[in-house]
Amino acid sequence: MVPPPPVSSPSPADSSAKGGSAQLTAKQAYRIHSDYQRGLSAAQRDLDQAAMGKLEGGLAVQMTRAGFKTAEMEGSSVAAGIWPNPRVWIPRHVAGRPDWFVAISTKPGVGRVADLMSSTPDGWRLVASAADTRPTPDRFPVIATDDDGYATSLSENATGLVATPRQVVDAHLASMERAEIDPMFADGPWTSDIALFWQEERAQLEDAGWSLTLSYLPEGPVRALRTADGGALVWYGARSTDTRKVERPGARVALKGAAAVRTGNRSFAHSARASYGRMYVTYIPPAGSPDPVRVLGDWSEVLEGHGD
């Protein structure tokens, strides 16, 4: 999960409900998410990778464990605490499919996090999360609810939008992989800024006699909720790899940030590669809207780094 702000934990909640055939209630969802947050906070304090297997699943648990490993290698800690006052939105139960819900929390001056919890054979797990940790996050759309207060889930191929959720996911990842700005998306830290960053990184490497190859591949299911204006909020994940290879021997290259930690802060003469887990939450306008698609948050962790 995206690191929380430094606030105190709420009072303990009852044990989490397991996924089942009955419709999940708001009370159960709040309890499940509260238990997750308390368990995560304890695991973060101890950098307890084993504990995360009971709290998260899929790419999410790999990312959190990778973050713990980076902190251990660096001799540092990770932020621990609780995002306050979440609101939950629950889609109606569909027979034969996992139940899931989202919990969204905003703390003024700190940011906003959007968690997605899913039922599994082993209980409830966080499987997606994305945050905007700018002091003033971009505006968030209103999630539509029916007369009973339940949200409407959409398939990855849902129509009635400027593009289907799957088309938006593919376009977003392709834009970053090509390091090209896509006019489908509003400018921002997880769209145009990323493309420009990779353009600058590639230019610097080429000047030093190195090449840069990028890969962004989708990972896990695409989950979406209908918004009140007829659009959609979409959660999705990806694995990215940036590979640097020497083309003109001479200059050495070092990775940056957490990738540098994972490679022992060494520089390399032949190749250097970093792999990341990434998650996003994105708003898709309804069909006919002139508004762009807006990426509203992300979560990124270095999974591994290598070089020679």
From TrEMBL:
Domain DUF8094, first and last residues per copy: 24-303
Protein name in UniProt: DUF8094 domain-containing protein
Top-rank taxon: Bacteria
Region ranges (Disordered): 1-24
Pfam family, any one: DUF8094
